[in-house]
Amino acid sequence: MIPSQAFTIATRIINQLIRDRRTMVLIVVVPLVVMTLIGLSFPEGTVLDYIAPALLATMALFFSFLLTGISFLRERSQGTMERLMASPVSRLDIVVGYLFGFFIFALLQTLIVVLFTIYALDVTYQGDLWQIFIFQIVIITAAVNLGIFISTFARNEFQMVQFIPLIIFPQIFLCGVIWPVEQMPNYLQWLSKILPLTYGVDGLRDIMLAGKSLLDVGFELAVLVGFAVVISIIAAFTLRRGAAG
Known about the structure:
By secondary structure, the chain is an all-alpha fold. It has one domain (6-243). Helices cover 78% and strands 0% of the residues. It has eleven helices and no strands. Helix 2 crosses helix 5, helix 3 (45-77) packs antiparallel against helix 7 (157-167) and helix 5 packs across helix 6 (129-151).
C-alpha cells in the first residue's frame, strides 16, 4: 500500500522542479551533450554498439544519483525537511514521496539518453526497446533511493559532490565498463558483486547484445530491486538524523 501523503509530497517536488526552468534545461541538455561527446569519441560503430549498454546503465545511475542527491539536500537546507518531520507525515511517506517526485525527472533523463543513443548515435541492439526501458527504470529507481540515502550524510552541496568519487566512480571502474571484471584481481571481482551497477551493466548487455528477455535477466533485476528496497528502508531510518543536518 502506497503511503497516503506520498503523492502530495511528490506533486510538490514535481511542481517545484518544473518551475525551475534552468534545472529543467540542464536535465534535458546535459545528457545530450555528454552522449554526443561519447558518440564522437567512438567513430567505429561496432565499438559503440558494444559499450552502449554499459554507458546507458552508467549514465542512468550517475544522472539519477546526482539529481536526487542535490535536490534532496536542497530540501533540507531550505528547511522543508524539518517542517515535514515536525508534521504528522511518516518517514516512509517522505521517502516514497521524494522517490516518486525525483523519479519522474530521472526517468525523463534516462529516456532522453536511451532514445538519443539508439536513434541519433545509431547504436545497433538486439533486444526489445521496451525491455531496455523497463530495465533502465529499475536502475534509476535504485539510483534515486541511493541518492536520497547518501544525501542524508551531507550538510552542503560541496559535501554531496564529494560522495560521487566515493560512491559512483568505484562502481564505474569495477562493473566492467572500462575493464572486464573477469580480468581483475579476485578481491576486486568479489567487491564488484556487491555493487548495483555491476548487475545493471550485465543485464543491459544481455538484453542489448545477446537479445535476451527480462526473464533471462531475472537475477540481475531481482538484485537491483532488492537493493532499491533495502536502501529505501535504510534511508527512512536515517532520515531524522539527516534532516537535523
